[in-house]
Design brief:
Pathogenesis-related Protein p14a; about 230 residues; 2 domains; two-stranded antiparallel ribbon; 8 helices; 4-stranded mixed sheet; alpha+beta; 6 strands; single chain
């Protein structure tokens, strides 16, 4: 009985995301993806610190997308085009990883979302080629080491640089997007996906760890890029 209920819930979630992909994607695309990376990073919000307890998730997702296109152009490659199906696949997997506390290309909890291709094909079957990058990176700017200290007044942890005992602050939206893309570019398999000219479409998602200051572990985000190629 429990398994039947869980499968029914998964089906409802998938259907809700399907509706969003068809009814809400145009607004989403027009808001953040109808501009190129230079215009996007000129938005004032790009230089705001990410409020880790209440981030603008859609803006952060778009920032990672546009930071990816920055490196494509730096290497004389055509920029990625946004695809709502790839976006929803990346969003679903990033959310699963951060809330179910796993880090893997394989989702062990849902047969519908077991592999990257299955996740993408829940929303679109247009792509002959599908690829995926994942990452898990802290969301505070720090030196080599951080110290966690309990703040009894605020009833939460604060994080300090070990070297100078200064408070570690969050990245800005632009800084974090460029930081995570730089980490992927420093890893050969991830770089190969980003630089592959056969991939022409992209969806990106970053999901921040919940209750970022209530745990001794530094706050982080789980990130996913899904790539698509029609040829």
């Amino acid at each position: 009985m429990i398994e039947v209920v869980c499968n029914a819930m998964e089906t409802l979630i998938i259907f809700a995301l399907y509706l969003y992909s068809h009814l809400g994607s145009n607004l989403h695309k027009n808001q953040y993806y109808a501009v190129d990376e230079s215009r996007f990073f000129a938005f004032p919000k790009s230089n705001e610190l990410i409020p880790l307890q209440n981030p603008d998730t859609l803006f952060l997702d778009a920032a990672v997308f546009h930071a990816s296109n920055e490196v494509r152009k730096q290497h004389d490659l055509q920029p990625f085009q946004y695809d709502p199906g790839l976006y929803l696949a990346s969003s679903g997997h990033a959310t699963s990883m951060v809330y179910r506390m796993f880090f893997n290309h394989t989702n062990p909890y849902s047969p519908y979302e077991r592999t990257a291709r299955r996740r993408v094909e829940l929303y679109t079957k247009r792509f002959r080629r599908v690829g995926e990058n994942i990452g898990k990176y802290q969301t505070l700017v720090s030196g080599d080491y951080m110290i966690a200290r309990w703040d009894g007044r605020l009833n939460q942890y604060e994080f300090l640089n070990e070297s100078d005992r200064k408070l570690c602050k969050p990245f800005t939206y632009a800084e974090y997007a460029r930081f995570v893309v730089a980490q992927w570019m420093a890893s050969t398999p991830h770089r190969n996906n980003l630089m592959n000219p056969a991939y022409t479409y992209l969806g990106c998602a970053a999901r921040l760890s919940p209750e970022p200051y209530l745990h001794k572990k530094a706050p982080y985000a789980s990130l996913v890029q899904n790539f698509g190629g029609e040829q």
